[in-house]
């Protein structure tokens, strides 16, 4: 295994020490595994807390900052954060206006966030949860009842974070988070596996000329394995699956073409060109876009496409200023 | 070969179509292969033009925008742009205050930029050049007389771009570009090869447990192949090599820990943690930092560390607002 790590057991703590050293705007606890805005708690502001397994960076810790998350709770690689950790993040940022938990739909995450919410409520902190389940590829995969939460988390965290920054109440922030999730669909394709450091072996193996359609962000099985195809055909499979679930014709959309960690930016732009053309050809208008590695699976090659059908209000919130390590504009 | 491409011959044009679709702030000519600020030419402003082989994205096209480059000329993958292309970019952005060419030190790039400069001067456009040769790993490698230009290009383009944005004259902008280059050193390590699409085979092959120290950004040979080692030791090799060339003790430094394209962000932060600790232990002060994939080699795994010894003026220019697809703050 050739990885830029010190020891498999230390990857999360070591990465958090690097995050702390690089970003004075964050307060990082590498042992307790929380990443918090340095200016938290912000009195009177609804706080947003997310978290999940590590190995998806910059999700979620890279989205902590003005206009997005107040805290993140990173678990072990591809492993849910524990309730105590989520509780610590929640208590560190609550500003007496309530806390929204943004939870990707994996059984362990949902359970541990629920336990943490109950513990927080024991301490008089009001908590609401928005579950992200945007992946159209499969239902009831390994680790998941229902649909998996993937790239749509970026949209949910950005847009709900913007509304919270404006001073909205907890119920409103939770509603917009759920609205974004409901209007968003994603589909991912793997061109290679990834290797979890503690395992030391690839999670799965693809043949020389084989790719996997509908992959999950932990390497969970997708819909099918097929022969390698041109980028435009891969994009067609992804957008056809999304469009079959929620018709895109006539919609104004926000599009994320997301690199899975091991695919060069050049190829992500090639996929984005195909996606923009596909959407135009099918009667959708791309109003906003984002290209880059935002929700990764370690060094997996491939891409995920996420599409959100915008409203004028969601567009306004997407455009609002944001200042985090991984997403920054307008401020 | 599993790549998210349509056809090997089309990768540059297809990626430029994606760049154009994603960034209305850019004027992109996918056939003529130029990427220009949409608001160019800016009368009275020194224009910065860079370029080089494709496959290093976001370098250079991702750095076109306010406070950085005015134009980029992307060549074929790992191949110098041709003089006509560089000339077209130069003529598209010159605002009667002269043009600075930022050129990475590869024989083809230096030659083609020189020819383009002569052609531009035939059309009464004043051109100066700043050559970037920051790589301490090897002298006189394949494609290069002297030292190679690598990660330091990011520092040169950002800082010289900031000074140009303030209205400095061509000689001043060229001087600060050369000053940044002189104060910057880089060293890269490969944990895997990359595959040029038109070739279809990895550029080189590493043994199961082998890495290459001092690698170039096209997979050119470095100093030596060694057994895999922990991230902290890899960082020690890189910073020891830089420090041997330009002592860092007592310096205030700007540090880039740069992912080569196939290494997850988590591992880049692990390397950054080790770099920050190494520098502190050796008496240098990290004043500014950047972690992420900014100068890549397609899907090569590994990292490059670049260190610039700052002055108060260089720090001020680094902090100045910038707004490009890949680097954005303060505006």
From TrEMBL, chains A, B:
Domain DhaK: 7-329
Pfam family, one: Dak1
One Gene Ontology molecular-function label: kinase activity
UniProt entry keywords in alphabetical sequence: Kinase, Transferase
Record flagged with keyword Transferase: yes
Stated name of the protein: Dihydroxyacetone kinase subunit DhaK
Organism: Actinomadura miaoliensis
């Amino acid at each position: 295994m050739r990885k830029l790590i010190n020891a498999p057991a230390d990857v999360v703590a070591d990465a958090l020490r690097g995050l702390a050293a690089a970003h004075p705007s964050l307060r990082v606890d590498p042992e307790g595994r929380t990443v918090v805005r340095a200016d938290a708690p912000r009195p009177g502001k609804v706080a947003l807390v997310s978290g999940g397994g590590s190995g998806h960076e910059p999700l979620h810790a890279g989205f902590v900052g003005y206009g997005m998350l107040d805290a993140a709770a990173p678990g072990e690689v591809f492993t849910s954060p524990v309730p105590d950790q989520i509780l610590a993040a929640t208590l560190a940022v609550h500003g007496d206006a309530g806390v929204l938990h943004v939870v990707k739909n994996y059984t362990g995450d949902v359970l541990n966030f629920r336990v943490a919410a109950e513990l927080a409520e024991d301490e008089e902190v009001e908590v609401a949860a928005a579950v992200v389940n945007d992946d159209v590829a499969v239902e009831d995969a390994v680790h998941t009842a229902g649909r998996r939460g993937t790239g749509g988390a970026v949209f949910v965290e950005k847009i709900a974070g913007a509304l919270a920054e404006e001073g909205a109440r907890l119920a409103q922030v939770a509603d917009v988070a759920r609205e974004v999730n409901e209007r968003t669909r994603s589909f991912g394709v793997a061109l290679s596996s990834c290797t979890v450091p503690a395992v030391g072996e690839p999670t799965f193996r693809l043949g020389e000329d084989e790719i996997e359609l509908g992959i999950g962000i932990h390497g969970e099985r997708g819909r099918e394995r097929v022969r390698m195809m041109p980028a435009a055909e891969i994009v067609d499979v992804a957008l056809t699956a999304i469009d079959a679930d929620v018709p895109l014709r006539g919609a104004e959309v926000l599009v994320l073409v997301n690199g899975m960690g091991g695919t060069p930016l050049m190829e992500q732009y090639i996929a984005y060109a195909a996606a923009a053309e596909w959407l135009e050809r099918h009667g959708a208008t791309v109003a906003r876009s984002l290209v880059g590695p935002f929700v990764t699976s370690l060094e997996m090659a491939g891409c995920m496409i996420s599409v959100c059908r915008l409203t004028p209000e969601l567009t306004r919130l997407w455009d609002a200023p944001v200042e985090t390590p991984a997403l920054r504009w307008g401020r």
